[in-house]
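Support request, please re-run this one:
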Amino acid sequence: MHHIQILRDRCGFPFDITSAYRCNQHPDEQNKATPGTHNRGLAVDIQVSGEQAHLLLLHAMTMGCFTGIGVKQKGPHDRRFIHLDISKTTPRPWVWSY
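Re-run finished. Output below.
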């Protein structure tokens, strides 16, 4: 959460975290062969789009602590998000889209 608070301060706007830690019984985790970064408490999904998504990505990249960045910017604005994680065990650094 420390990194996320720094990111919020740098962005200068509030944002909603729509997903963070997920237990083994979470539907998204049950569909995976191995637990993901959310299951290990290393990831968050932040609801953001448009200009704010651009600014969030800019600051997240320059902070240097986020090793995984996933971007979903299609569909309704309230369903768009950016995934950030600090995993060091999966192929990293890595960027992907949904």
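The chain has a mean pLDDT of 95. The chain has one domain: 2-97.
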